[in-house]
Specification:
It is a single chain. The radius of gyration is 17 Å and the shape is globular. Strands 1, 2, 3, 4, 5, 6, 7 and 8 form an 8-stranded mixed beta sheet that branches. By secondary structure, it is an alpha/beta fold. Strand 7 (216-221) and strand 8 form a beta hairpin. It is 33% helix and 22% strand. The chain has one domain (6-233): Vaccinia Virus protein VP39 (Rossmann fold, 3-Layer(aba) Sandwich), CATH 3.40.50.150.
Length: 235
Amino acid sequence: MATFTHPMRLRLLRALALAALAVALATAPARAQDDGRHPVSGRFFANTMSAAGASWLDRPEREDEEAPKKAIALLGLKPGDVVADVGAGSGYFALKMAELVGPTGRVYAADIQQEMLDIIKSKLGYTPVKNVTLVLGAEDNPKLPPNTLDMALMVDVYHELHEPQAVLTHLREALKPGGRLILLEYRAEDPKVPIQTLHKMSVQVAKLEIEHEGFVLAKVLNDLPWQHLLIFTRP
């Protein structure tokens, strides 16, 4: 049996994870990648990851590659906050945020794929977490309650939206005045980030598109290995 050193094992796991991601994107039920462009920036919409790729979201090497624990700490959540994980996928972030906002807070885990919500529901059955609400959204509407959220989070999701302007309109309605919209996106400015170009976003393009819908870019954090964290506010 072959013996792998730790660096070799990480490279192998990363290669397998990226291969799984490629399969998930290729088999995604959403529209073709070149089917639409953003009317403001001209950016092509990326394909949506299907539930077949959920294991990539929970891969053990994700902490080494992306530092999600640090990302969650940077969100600045506090007990009692009401937040949404839009495009929640397997619930990787939603469940961790639920612990931080505590029993007096709430996390809305929204996704357009029932299969993803079923994965989260299964995980909830094995945890004491009781403050997560599952929401089946639509491509143009995450279906979140109005004037409720302190923060809405999208982790590597915004670039996959095929109706981004409609989604942002609904998120603006769901956020309280002064509420935050936070995006984690793979840095398009960095060619060393090993992600397909369509699944990256630059700060310039994100700012152009999202400020066009009435948000204000308040801060950009580049503390993570592959992603930038963009904090927008609702005036």
